[in-house]
Amino acid sequence: MKEDRRELARELRTHPFLQGLDPGFLDAIEGATQEREFETGDPVVREGEPAGELILVLQGKIGLELVAPDRPRLSLLTVGPGEIVGWSWLLPPRIWQVDGRALKATRVLTIEGNALRKVLEDRPKDAYQFMLRLVPVISRRLHIARIQVMDIHAV
Amino acid sequence: MPSEPFGAPVPQESGTPWAPVPYRVSERTQETADTATIELEPLEGTRRPDFLPGQFNMLYAPNIGEAAISIAGSPSDLRRWVHTVRSAGKTTDALAQVRVGDVLGVRGPYGKGWPLHEAEGKDLLLVVGGLGLPPLRPVLYEVLSHRDRFRRVEIAYGARTPKDLVYYEEIQRWRGRDDLRFQVTVDRAGTEWYGDVGIVTQRIPDMRFEGSSTVAFLCGPEIMMKGTARALQERGVLTSRIYVSMERNMKCGIGQCGHCQFGPYLLCRDGPVLPYASVERFLALREF
Q1: By CA distance, what is A105's nearest residue in B?
Q2: Nearest residue of A to residue B164 by CA position?
Q3: What ipTM was assigned to the predicted interfaces of this complex?
Q4: B86 contact A CB<8A
Q5: B118-155, pLDDT tens digit by residue?
Q6: Is B34 close to A155, i.e. CB distance below 8 A?
Q7: Structure pTM?
Q8: Is residue B87 within 8 angstroms of chain A, CB to CB?
Q9: CATH topology of domain A2-150
Q10: What is the CATH number of domain B116-283?
């Protein structure tokens, strides 16, 4: 068990999204971190349910999907090792906006959202550095969505 | 492997560049709902002219019209032309819907090809969007025929949906090889697709290459090539080693009519393959 926690701590600190952040900050969020595993096809998050965590992908692949009545499920983005899922835990109403589904055997770390927000509030300098990591992810995904809307491969 | 330097002219088949040479359709493969690959064998003689990967032919559908279509076959298969055509208008509809036995006219090959010799001894990246794969398919054939001349070979291919992927079975074979890495991504997909979804430029951070010793060939929508070039520059690829295939409104194929003018270039004659450094400033201009 102790060995498992040590490995989890290592994976938390070496995940590209967090790597290089202040060691004290990483120590502070370690206690709120858990490892989870998913088999192919398992739901990871579901639209409309409470968004209670930040997800760091270690292995595998998660498809972010939209579901609408009378339409087939649509996959808009896949997220792989080194990437993250979710910022809905940060801001009200803290509800997932998409479905996430494991597209292969997937292993992630989750950081509990309430605890993470508390650490960010208590450590504004670290929170700024954290946001410097998060905002580019949001920006990239917005850019991807814009290109997808352009439908550049259409005739 | 083409021995000519980049941009060297290739002798034309017919005495006059305006006269199409008749070829018979020997095979047709439906690639997607609107795209087909056709193979053309000469009515007279037993072989076609040589070509450089990246060049194109003007295909003539009798009594309908002519269209510039990239050559998609192997340079070493001298018996046939291979072209992949998407229905996008009257002429390309006719070309994509030919039947085995039909006769088409062919003028070419025209234009300048990919400077493969520049990639020898270096990492080679092919970044492809949509129907950008056919013009790069001959490059892959050449590279695989002379695999030892290149270091890492990485391909990223993006399409609109899984149903829009061309050469599907061949891609599976390429993906099964251990001497190249072929990534596929689609802009959107349903639940039947377990591959990557997003845009092809997302694959760049994951591609394995040494920026300072890499040559990149890009082919696809201009916005995709622009985004890809930027991402490659950020990873240290020299702008002078990035090449793009520009395809706009080609009509005559021989630099006479001016329809395909792009800045100082007539793309049918000076391109379609051009150094990115030559076109970067024009791609940045709106309404150009």
Answers
A1: B194
A2: A153
A3: 0.88
A4: yes
A5: 999 999 999 999 999 999 999 999 999 999 999 999 99
A6: yes
A7: 0.90
A8: yes
A9: Jelly Rolls (2.60.120)
A10: 3.40.50.80
